[in-house]
Amino acid sequence: MSKFLIDRFSNLEPYVPGEQPKEKKYIKLNTNEAPYPPSPNVVDAIDKVVVAGLNLYCDPDTTKLTKIIADFYDVDFNEVFIGNGSDEVLALIMMAFVDEKTKVCFPDITYGFYRVFSKSFDLDAKEVPLKDDFTIDINDYINCGRNIIIANPNAPTGLVLTHEEIEKILISNQDRVVVIDEAYVDFGSKSCIELLDKHPNLIVVQTFSKSRNLAGARIGFAIASKEIIEDLNKMKFSITPYNINTMSQIAGVESVKDNDYFEKCNNKVIATRERTKKELRKLGFRVTDSKTNFIFVTHDSISGKEYYSELRKHGILTRHFNDKRINEYVRISIGTDEEMDKVIEVTKKILYEAVNYNFVVGK
Ligand SMILES: Cc1ncc(COP(=O)(O)O)c(C=O)c1O
């Protein structure tokens, strides 16, 4: 730390991204990326633009991408805001709507960046414990008097709240924004976008990083009332007006155009997820009912940390969180069928060795 860093940031605890290995070749199931490449149309379109337009600034209004997203979700152009990944969208939402009066809350077990943003912006953030079964108790959020952020499906549990439950939260907190982070909604749950007409305090956030196979392009978006979107644009144009580069804007447009590819990839991920859940349950794992592109698993015969480390030794990267409520669990992103077959095969080996070992030492 230099002597110039201001006091407010001296205790900052930055987000720790999942490992992006450079040397060794792993089966990479640690950051919930898509296992399949982007639509071939994306690749063709970017090829052309690299030669054509990079001497000019990108479109600060992200006009084509905003329009195609608005059309896709059947909302108005001025109800869509695009950010550099949903991380940027979430950061701008926090900056725009949370202060010492309006405050914020979110589940204790959820996407780690909510906590990091709260610390970075020095916000009054309340972490609301999930129930023992990792579900959200909506009573904790009724009339809570704070802005609310809920990932739905939640991460890393993969569990979903119903629209009925979310509406209760929205209705009882009309003076605060309720952010529903739908990073994983395309893997089998229902978007809250259809609730926007009824609830002007709702902000739906989604990303192109998971179901649109474009994590590296950094595209996220919010859909909300035009007044909320205007506020977010005010923030963006005060900080980072050219937030989506030209190539990403084109990639985003082409990806939305190729809806067949989008659906085909997501259906494959869902089928692979359900098959993997079944196989792991047969091996004695408890697996949450994830509606995402990852599963969250635990086994009585091996600790979460050991299972994670053993998978890693066998060339499979997953995610283990050092949080005491979930440290017996491992989060495994859904890869291709071949990759998940390998996970099952290696897991059988690991379990056999772990159970034998435990037997020998008399556990
Ligand atoms: C729940 C949730 N929200 C948001 C994000 C951020 O996604 P991105 O910034 O890539 O759009 C993630 C990433 O893993 C996530 O799990």
Tell me the number of strands.
Answer: 12
Adjacency order of strands in the biggest sheet = 2-8-7-6-5-3-4
Structural class category: alpha/beta
Quaternary structure = single chain
Primary descriptors:
transferase; Aspartate Aminotransferase, domain 1; seven-stranded mixed β-sheet; histidine biosynthesis; three-stranded antiparallel β-sheet; alpha/beta; 10 helices; 2 domains; binds pyridoxal-5'-phosphate; Aspartate Aminotransferase, domain 2; single chain; HistidinolP_aminotransfase; 363 residues
Give me the secondary-structure topology.
Blueprint: E1 27-28, H1 40-52, H2 63-73, E2 80-83, H3 85-97, E3 104-107, H4 113-120, E4 125-128, E5 147-151, H5 163-171, E6 178-181, E7 202-207, E8 220-223, H6 226-239, H7 246-257, H8 259-282, E9 286-287, E10 294-298, H9 304-313, E11 316-317, E12 330-333, H10 337-360
Parallel strand pairs: 1-11, 3-4, 3-5, 5-6, 6-7
Antiparallel strand pairs: 2-8, 7-8, 9-10, 10-12
Bound molecules: pyridoxal-5'-phosphate (PLP).
GO molecular function, one term: histidinol-phosphate transaminase activity
Keywords: Amino-acid biosynthesis, Aminotransferase, Histidine biosynthesis, Pyridoxal phosphate, Transferase
Domain Aminotransferase class I/classII large: 25-345
